[in-house]
Amino acid sequence: MRIENTSVPITAINKPEAIEKKGVPLDGTSTHAQIKAKAREFEEIFIADSLKNAKIGMTDSSLVGDTKITDTFSTFMNQALAETIVSQGGFGLTEQITQSLMHLYTKNPLNNSKE
Fold it and tell me: Is 1 within 8 Å of 83 (Cβ atoms)?
């Protein structure tokens, strides 16, 4: 799972070249696939964070003797569990986010292609 800053300033909404510079190509050739991949990443992060907050994946630090090791292990375990959950359908966030963003993308008059 890769976390990167792909935020686009609100002023860039009507400037496609500003969005393109952030790594989102606007040629329409693979927009759906890219949006779906980012939506999937978001769902994985969301689920991993939910698991972290629910304290799932936590082990007894007295077994290891170091809370940093326990925290690191729990983080990796939550990420792996989140990836597994999403690969088996997840909570449905990936599809909902993809549909919403594709709707916005196709409604934008600056985009010539419809996917």
Answer: yes
